[in-house]
Amino acid sequence: MQNVRDPELPGRLLAVERDALIPLLRSRAEEDFALPVAACPAWTVRDVLAHCSAALTRVVENRFEKGAFSPESNDRDIAERAGWSNAQVVDELERGMTEAGPAIAKAGGALDLIALGEWVHAGDVRVAFGEPGAYAGAGLPYALALLAQATTERGHVPLHADLDDLDEPLRLGDATGQRPPARFIGDGSTLVRLYAGRPVDRPYELAGVEAAELNILGD
């Protein structure tokens, strides 16, 4: 059966992204951490990274108090790290990307989208830096597989995607057949952008669904 949950997949995505992102962050000048992030209005690169590291630390420490991951909680997490150096934020992010996989695996799918959200935020940071490969790179195959799993598990809008990056079509969303699947033709990074509500900068074809209906990450 396609899109059966692989509990190790979120951890693999985080590990692949860790190995690409952390060296990039450590190579950047201090002032680069103050750059604005277009996908997250009012947040800087540092704010996004602090949000990401805090979220993974919550997962590792199993701290899910009421309101965790709400906008107010996210702002508190960022404020709590205001006195940290940029290097400390990056160190916490590296630890989280290394250690969160097993905790996500044990959660039965409830936390899978956190791994995908972390990967998307890494793309947001690349955009802010003017770096190539935003929402692409070595993690893209894992991100697409996780997106397919998560949308199927949640009964999201059914969609068949013919991707330039994959030999076989990718099936996402509700597998019951109650709604005819929408169709997407384009590349994988564009598909991720649509599901993450990020601006699209390449041509694509979409039929049977409005782009806004695909957004599953909500930020």
From TrEMBL:
Provide the taxonomic classification: Bacteria, Bacillati, Actinomycetota, Actinomycetes, Kitasatosporales
Q: Does the keyword Isomerase apply?
A: yes
Q: Which UniProt keywords apply?
A: Isomerase
NCBIfam families the record matches = maleylpyruvate isomerase family mycothiol-dependent enzyme
Organism, per UniProt? Answer: Streptomyces thermocarboxydovorans
Matches recorded under Pfam families = MDMPI_N
- List residues of the Mycothiol-dependent maleylpyruvate isomerase metal-binding domain: 16-107
Top-rank taxon, per record: Bacteria
Q: Indicate what this protein is called per its UniProt record.
A: Maleylpyruvate isomerase family mycothiol-dependent enzyme
Q: Name one GO molecular function term.
A: isomerase activity
InterPro entries assigned: DinB/YfiT-like (IPR034660), Maleyloyr_isom (IPR017517), MDMPI_metal-binding (IPR024344)
